[in-house]
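SAMPLE LOG
Freezer: B-3
Tube label: C17
Construct: single chain, 265 aa
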Amino acid sequence: MLSPTVYTNSVQPIATPGDAYRALPRVSNSDLTRLKEEHLGYWSVPSARFIGEKTKVFGRAFHQHLLEPESIGTVIQQLLPDMVDSSDQPGLDGLSLAQAEQLAALMRTIKQDTFCHRYLRMSERERIVLSTDPVTSVACKARLDMIYTSPKRRNALVIDVKTTSARTQAQFLESCYTYDYDRQAAFYVDSLRNADNQEWASTRQFRFVFIGVMKQRPHRLFAVDATSIPGFIDYGRKKYRFWLRKWREEQESTVLSAPAWSMTA
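STRUCTURE (predicted):
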């Protein structure tokens, strides 16, 4: 059964903003992915459990350099002159030098794009939103790559950046369904609508755009406006609420089945 991460007093890992977010006793979209895997079997859906460690390291480095560049400084620029394509020596953030060069190429592609450059500059990055789903009453959390809210707060644009193996726009759109991006988009948009602090209560329009950057050369960019696809958000909403109900049922079942002494201890 899925449960929040709990740290004991024995061995404490070094705290990071990511650790603090994961420790929040609320349900995230990633939690719903893990719950789905537990119920349907890890083989039934594309699972992060089967992603190689090198790929995970690259993904973390990608998001850190894109969304938290202030934590990196200019190390990429310092490293680039000494890079060799075929090298396997360790380089930036545990990446091989070849991976670091690939990462730098992806950063250049994104930052040279007018749309991405504009919203990287104007948006809040890694924004944490706490909400309560009004249908299931489950406390939720979401961490958004980028969100731009118009000055009068009437419009909100959420941008989520993915690295992708897709080579065409059609393939990237297909991956949005394969990897449950419809569920993610609905979960994030509804998190804003139902935010506990009511920050977006007066917002009239929510837009959600996925940006896919091709990992292989020529590192093309793909864009999918999730909120403009008929039924995309509605179907994703049905999916995330189905799994929120499952999560709530498991929590209630655990409480009911717990021995009396454990509830009074």
